[in-house]
Amino acid sequence: MLLSASLCVEYGKHGGSVLWLHYMQRVPFVCGNWKMHKTVSESIALVNALSSRLTDTSVEIGVAPAHTSLYAVKKALADDRIRLVAQNVHEAPRGAFTGEVSMEMLLDVGCDYVLVGHSERRHIFGESDELVAQKVRTVLAGGLRVILALGETLDERKQGSTLMTVRRQLTSGLEGLSEDELAKVVLAYEPVWAIGTGLSASPDQAQEVHRALRTQISDGWGSEASTKLRIQYGGSIKPANAQALFSQLDIDGGLVGGASLLAEDFADICEAALT
Ligand code: 13P
User: Which domain holds residue 232?
Assistant: First the structure.
C-alpha cells in the first residue's frame, strides 16, 4: 500500500542521464460511510469518540454522515484531522429538485470530499454511468475532492466480466479529466457482492482489480498520475481483515460501511492502514 516506486530520468550537470528511483508515498485514506444511520446527537457522539481514540495522523481519515448531520459533525470536529465527506450531491447548481442537495450547500457546511457512484446510488436509485460522470464533474468544478466508487455485481463476477465492468465505470466516470483534476480523485473499488454481506473480497481478488484500475489510469494519464492515485477498497471491511487488505500493493485504505458505526472498530481499521 504505502510505497511504490517510479523510475524517472533526469539530466545531470554534464549532460549524462541519471536514473533516479523515486519512492512515492501514497497516504492511505480510510473513510467511514455512515449511510442512512445516526441522528445528529448520535453522529456527534460517534465523531467525538473517534477523535479521542485516534492517536496517529499519518493516515487520512474521513467520515460521511447523513446530510442532516454534516454541519453538526463539522462543528464537533475539534481538529482538522478528520475529513468531512458528503454521501451524494445533485449535479445541478440549484433549482426545483425536491429532496436534493447542491454543491454550494456542501461547501457551505465545510465538506472536503463528495462520494459519487456508490453502488447503492447506482443500483437502488438507478444512477447511470453518465449521471455519475456528471456528478464527478460537478464536484470538481465546485472545488471539492471526489471519491468515485465502482464495482461489479455478483452476476458480473460469475460471468467473468469484473474487469470489463470496472474499466467501463472508470472510463465513463473520469472521461476528459485533466491531470490536475485527476489529482483530486480517489477511487473506491467496492464489489457489490461484498457490501454489507460479511463476505469481503480476498486480498488477492481486490489487488487484482486495483492493479487493473491503476494500469488503466497509467494508460490514460501517465505513470506518475497512476502512481499518485489512491484506490480504496470497500466491502465488509472489519478490524480482522483490514490489515491483510491494506497491505496489498495497490490498496490505499478503505471505504468502510457497517464497521465505521462503531468508534472502536473504525479506529482499529484506521490503525491497520498504518502497518
Ligand atoms: P460495508 O462495510 O458495510 O460492507 O459497506 C461498504 C460500503 O458500502 C462503504 O461505502
Answer: 5-272
For residue 93, pLDDT beyond 80: yes
Neighbours of 133 (CB within 10 A): 22
pLDDT, tens digit, for every residue of 106-145? Answer: 999 999 999 999 999 999 999 999 999 999 999 999 999 9
Domain count, the chain: 1
- Measured from the CB, is residue 239 less than 6 Å from ligand 1? no
Q: Which ligand 1 atom sits nearest the alpha carbon of residue 35?
A: 10
CB 237 within 8 A of CB 259: yes
6 Cα: distance to centroid of ligand 1 (angstroms): 32
DSSP string, 189-226: E--GGGTTSS-PPPHHHHHHHHHHHHHHHHHHH-HHHH
Is the Cβ–Cβ distance between 149 and 115 less than 8 Å?
yes
The string of pLDDT tens digits covering residues 49-61 is 999 998 777 899 9
Residue 209 sits in a domain whose CATH number is 3.20.20.70
Q: Does residue 14 carry a catalytic annotation?
A: no
